[in-house]
Amino acid sequence: MDAKRELLDLLLSNAREDTTDLARQTGLDAAEVESLIAELEADGTVLGYQAVVDWDRVDGEHVQAEVELNVELDRETGYEEIARRITKFPQVASLRLISGDYDFAIDVEGESMHDVSNFVSEQIAPIPEVTQTVTHFVMETYKERGIEFGDRDDDDRLSVSP
Amino acid sequence: MKLADRVNQVPPSGIRRFFELAEEKDDVISLGVGEPDFSAPWAARTAAIDSLERGKTSYTANRGRRDLRQAIADHVTRYDQSYDPDEEILVTTGASEAVDVAMRALVDPGDTVAVHQPSYISYAPGIIFAGGEPLAVPTRMENDFKLTYADLEASGAADADVLVLCYPNNPTGATMSRDDLTEVAEFAREHDLVVLADEIYAALTYDGDHTSIATLPGMRERTVVFNGFSKAYAMTGLRLGYALGPADAIGAMNRIHQYSMLSAPTTAQFAALEALRSCEGDVVEMRTQYNRRRRFVLSRFNEMGLDCFEAKGAFYAFPHCGGDDEAFAEALLQEQNVAVVPGRIFGEGGEGHLRVSYATGMNDLREALDRIETFVS
Asked: Which residues are in the Aminotransferase class I/classII large domain (chain B) (predicted)?
């Protein structure tokens, strides 16, 4: 694995790892790690670093929904144009063009169900090319970005073994 | 009750005392564990569950399920090992059982079995239980704990009947390349030694592929190889291993196995079969993580001034603590709540060293090494 890819893997599993520890784990020196990360950021490979949050443990409401979106294209409007309009809304956490029964999958976040459904009906549905929206509210999250939610298993190995 | 002499000949394991010391304390970060911190791959676990649901709870053939032996035969071709699943493979209850039945099948009372040290603690007792006499062959840090022709010669192994070889090594993390093994093979051929090659850590090598001594010229017919699923697939508790060797040796081992164990655990055999079929990606991922931790641990030890050779296998570092390893490990546990295992427990050549297992998550590893640094300074 090349050094850049190795760093990317490490950042994917823990983006808070500091430069010195990244260097120790990869066998690179700290300056190399810094310059490779700077390259990854500058060329747009790494776009940001975010926490994975279990919202059940945070005070206050937080609602997530997955919205299926069907669109009808015409000569002037393609997927790109529609996507550009939708991504601008801060309520849209992710937007993907996908294969299958519908065109776009959107993750929408808001402070209440009302917030989210209002947003979908008032901002998304009225877009001229949109022909149908189906909103699925998230009821429980079990795993996100490779991280399992809920109680963690204790290490029940013997503390010293041959 | 009167106990058999062979039991009294074997002292209780030195590991046990450290285990008890560590258990007395709270908030201990243990780098003393000789098994993976991962769980078995999920696909292997579900295969075990599925086999139970289908009622697969009877004995299997003594040698293990035929499909599993075939899968093992296919798998070991990656190490250039070629064994007939009908005659040359025995599925055992952990590689430990394979070691035990090999000793009993191949060692006669009074035979001498050379064991390089430091090494895993079960070989010498296994030899004694079989009626043999262990001969320690110390290896040295200046040779990166590889076994050399000179080491064998100096310790009188020329007169031995059997040689136990364990690389990648527990506790040192040492590995041996084809070149390194050539002189050991030469010694074994010259002095007509049977070689018992414990390759349980074969999948955990970080400097290229593992080489088995059985694949060197003239060695296949005098070597029994032990391997298993515990380390590579993080399946220690499922207890599944295997032995590879010439038909007469495997047949003799099977004769003991069939009267003592009958067959290896059936549920574990189903897990193992699935592990071989679909869990290579899990092994690669675990190896990648061990390798990162290995680099991390080695670089931390070198930064804090503990002399540590570059271990390239298993999941152990073996730094020199600069003094009495037992006193160091005990004080480290008492003062900083970090458990490591004193090297001397693993035999001659281990004195002054510590076995530090990096089969522990990065957060604990980081904290433990910070504490060791505090202790050292």
From this structure: 27-372
